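User: structure tokens for this one?
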Amino acid sequence: QLEFCIETFDPNAKKHSDQKKELLALRMAVEDELALLKEKQIKAMDEFRESEEALDQAGFEFLHPVDENNDEVLSRRVKMVEYKAHLSKQEEVKIAAEREEIKRMKTMKASTKVEGGA
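Assistant:
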């Protein structure tokens, strides 16, 4: 009876329920994949530790892989922000042009009324 009431108020309740189940399954798959990636990261860091210590003892300057990765991620983010800014600038230009066109059309309409009314 409760199910009937739910379907009465929301005819798409079953569809939403199915979508929720699919999304939960997808979430669990993503969480599993993330856990695997974290394990791989820890393993890679442990494997690099010996090399890192040897490089430090030899006095060799190097960029740590974590720092290198962070720099790459930051560089990508900078490019994406610049790209977004470029796109939004183009949108601003289009909007300004459209506003000017509207203003011209209003002016033409007003001057046509004045000429026609005079």
